[in-house]
Amino acid sequence: MKQMSPLEELRHSAAHVLATAVLRLFPEAKLDIGPPTETGFYYDFDLEHRFTREDLDRLEAEMAKVVKENQPFIRKEVSREEARELFARLGQDYKLGRLDDIPEGEPVSLYQNGDFVDLCAGTHVRYTSKIKAFKLLSIAGAYHRGDENNVQLQRIYGTAFPSKDELAEYLERLEQARQRDHRKLGRELKLFHIDDDVGQGLILWTPAGSVVRSELQNFIAAELRRQGYHQVFTPHIGRLKLYRTSGHFPYYSDSQYPPLIERESLEELAHEGCSCAELANRLKEGEIDGYLLKPMNCPHHIKIFASQPRSYRELPVRLAEFGTVYRWEQSGELNGMTRVRGFTQDDAHLFCTEDQVPAELMGCLSLVRIVLTTLGMQDYRVRIGLRDPDSAKYTGDPANWDKAERACREAAAQLGVPYTEEAGEAAFYGPKIDFVVKDVIGREWQLGTVQVDYNLPIRFDLEYIGPDNQPHRPVMIHRAPFGSMERFCGLLIEHFGGDFPTWLAPEQVRILPISDKVLPYAEELAAALQAAGVRHAIDRHADKLGAKIRRAELEKAAYALVCGGKEAEARSVSVRSRFRGDEGVQPFDVFLARIKSEIAERTLLMREGPGETRGDN
To answer: String of b and e for 496-527 (b: at least 16 CB within 10 Å)?
Structure first.
């Protein structure tokens, strides 16, 4: 029996109390499982009645009664036959299926509180009265055992904490997360769109969202030029032969789009009467060639490196691309911009000598730090993903793995930030260093990644000529500071709550003429901003000033410039900042010089909460 942490025990027990309440109010419900999670708990139910928000309120009230009854959690070991008889009598068919999952010879344990009995390994708090602060949060569909071919159950999510203060704090964070949800803000601010006719998981970048993406790409591209990278472009598809060599096909075919078959080959196969199953098997075995929507950029970059003889004198070779790749995700796993089927990586692959690995690795890690610092994401930790020696998914010589893992550890230590090691989290070709960032409301996101790879150069037989005039094998480093533009922009929307710093803001200035009489002056301001490269718009609506100010705030323009007759006469503007509030009247030239500097230096201004602003340079 695995001993849970005190918080896990509390949440596990709350899940049982939820199940108790459901059976009291809906005796016909069939129960599946109810584990604790990182943020709370859930329980899955099969019930003809569809749960509603009102039902959650009723269930919470019933749970409160169970808690007040101070029921003890009693563990009992029984024979497999006793358990089967019990759950058959109760009509709990899913429990019978879970009973079959318990290996022969292992104990079968039940937990009982009041009249409720569950098949459960534990552990739990001693009494229901220990569950002092809980909340039911939402209802979702969940396929039995996670298989979409099975029946869809109703999953009730909840959370529990040792104290009401901790629960209140968590619920406040949840509310902030809802307000910052990139799907909500993306729709309100017209940053991106997903259309069924295009396909789920495929992002349409609107003009406003494209500004954010372009600014990020320009920012990283300038850093890459300073660090000696070469920009490349590669196609969106490649032959299956390429991905067989790399190892991406067929081993990861479940997460790839089906291969594309050449028209002539397809006609021949149809003439032969080849079935779909036979076609899939022949593709897997390599009897038929085809093309694959690019799942990774690295094989294409490898081919660029291998396209000409290489000397040690030109190493390291650093190839960078904003390359779009495609992965097949189940529809239930898609989530706005953060879980998609097509995404663009700020990808680069470095080919270097073994002696150059430490310096190149540090250069990659420093680049990730520059990105995070510029965007105000300085609360992060580093995680090293290592191979699992007992897993068959990893390829290559153990000695090379040892060298790569040692290089990652040394680089992380030199970086000077705390790091953890996680076995089994490496890529199939090498260990990786991930940056796990905490956003302004305390959530963690895995962002930039750097990987050391001794294996793909072997698979592709890469060589360079060394100072001894003999061929040598390069080492390859994979790195992507943003990870993917889609996911990173989704995170930024939530991190900033849509209030992007001025250099990233789709609209940097909104000009608010108080009447049509000052439109000529507003046009002059717009022309000056245009000449300076500042993104702007004029609010030409025939509204009162208050309505215009409110609209600029809702649409999150970084600055609003109010201009009336006095301002036109004095060549000034009344400045309202998203980050500093009302700044009063100032000469337009002074404002223009300041905003140009703010944009050029990528000054960070953030709205952290009501009335709070942080500014960094």
So the answer is: bbbbbbbbbbbbbbbbbbbeeebeebbebbbe
